[in-house]
Specification:
Strands 2-1-5-6 form a 4-stranded antiparallel β-sheet. A 3-stranded antiparallel β-sheet has the order 3-4-7, covered by helices on one side. 12% of the residues lie in helices and 47% in strands. It is elongated, with a radius of gyration of 15 Å. The protein has 1 helix and 7 strands; from the N terminus they run H-E-E-E-E-E-E-E.
């Protein structure tokens, strides 16, 4: 029978992630993320994490682009960056052309899970 990570173990991993990620970076890259990524493909803006939400074994980081930020960019990638500037996670999504007509809130959830 395979082992399992307890809720305490999942929460310890969550707490570590929560203390490490300090910024979310947004860019226009469209290539699939890989484990060897060290930066966004084409970073447009980097913002401090202005909120996080924790659940059992997971943490959600959030930041907001205001109506005056990243206008004209075809945003399609998001990255979690730690205090040393290292990329901890990267994802791509269907592109959004940012304009001054709206704000965007980005939320990234990282989960510790049993295999």
């Amino acid at each position: 029978m395979p082992g399992t990570i307890t809720n305490a173990g999942l929460n310890a991993t969550r707490d570590f992630l929560q203390s490490e990620v300090t910024e979310l970076a947004v860019g226009t890259g469209t290539t699939d993320p890989t484990k060897t990524d060290t930066a966004l493909e084409n970073e447009v803006i980097r913002k401090p994490v202005d909120g996080d939400d924790a659940g059992t074994g997971e943490v959600t980081f959030a930041t907001r682009l205001t109506s005056s930020e990243a206008n004209g960019a075809d945003l399609a990638e998001l990255g979690a960056v730690d205090g040393d500037g290292d990329l901890q996670a990267r994802l791509t999504y269907s592109s959004i052309v940012k304009t001054s007509d709206f704000e965007i809130e980005f939320r990234l959830t990282e989960r510790a899970m049993n295999p």
